[in-house]
Amino acid sequence: MAAAAFVASRLPRMAANARPLFLTACILVAIGISLHSSTLYGSILIANGFNLSVGNTISMIGLELALISLIAALDPALRGISAGLLVLGALAACMTGFDDQPTTTTALVWQVRAHVLVALMSYGLLTVGAIVAVYAMVQERRLQAGKFSTMSNLFAPLETTEKLLFGIAAAGFTGLALTILLGLTFVENLFAQHLAHKTVFSLLALFVFGILLAGRFFAGWRGKRAVKLYLGGFLLLCVAYFGVRVILEQLFHRSWS
C-alpha cells in the first residue's frame, strides 16, 4: 500500500521532483515481491505435487499484478494505473494459504509440473490484462461522454493503456500456447472425455487472442473492438479453467487435471 502511494506521488503532473519517493517505491515493491514469492512458493509446492487452492491461485495473480505494475511504472504515464494494480496485488497476497487443500496427492513428473505452472502463470497474466481491459473500457466511455475530473490526471492516456493491454495479451497468448504444447508432451489424448471441454475452450481462447493480436498488428485494432475481443477470450479461458473444474469436481466428483 505504501509503495502504491509512493508510485502515485511520482506522477509527473503531481510531483516533478519526487524521484526519491519513486525509488523508495521500487525498493518496497521489490522487497514485497521477494517476500510474496517466497511465501507463495512454500504454500504451492508441496511434497507430492501442488496446492492450488483458491487462495493460492488468487495470490499468484496478485504476484503477477505486482510484477507488471513494477514494470509499467517505468513509464511515468502508467504510474497511476501501476499504483492501482499494486493495491490489488497487496490484497490478493493476503489470500495465500486460504482454503488450504492440496489438489494433487501423487508425485508429478516434471512435464506435468511445468504444464501446471505455465498454465497458472498464463492465466494470471491474462487476468491482469482483463483488469486493464475493463479500465480501458471505462476510460474510453468517460472520454466519449466528455467526463473529465482531477482524477483523470492520475491515469495514462487511453492509447498508452491499450499498449499495455496488448503487451500483456501477447505475453499471455505465448504462455497459453506453450501450456497447450506442454500438454501434448504427456497427455495421450487431450480430447479424452474428462479433458475435452477444457481443451476446446482453451483452444478457442487461444484462437480469439490470436485474432486480436493479428488485428492489432495488421489492421491497428484498438478501442471497443479490441477490449471486447480480449474480454471474450478471457471469458472462454475462465470457462476452460474454472467452469469445467466446477462441473467435474462438484457434479461428477472427477479431477479436472
Task: State the shape.
Answer: globular
| Beta content | under 5%
Total beta strands: 2
Distance between the termini: 36 Å
Sheet with the most strands? Answer: 2 strands, antiparallel
Kindly give the count of domains. Answer: 2
The count of helical stretches stands at 8
Bin the helical content: over 70%
Mean pLDDT: 77
Structural class: mainly alpha
Quick gist of this model?
This protein has helices at residues 2-9, 19-44, 54-72, 79-93, 110-144, 158-186, 196-219, 223-251, and strands at residues 45-46, 49-50. It is an all-alpha fold.
Describe the structure in your own words.
The chain has 257 residues and is mainly alpha-helical. The protein has 2 domains: 107 residues, no CATH class; 148 residues, no CATH class. It contains 8 helices and 2 strands. It has a two-stranded antiparallel ribbon with strand order 1-2. A hairpin with a 2-residue loop joins strand 1 and strand 2. Helix 1 runs antiparallel to helix 4 and helix 6 runs antiparallel to helix 7. The two termini are 36 Å apart.
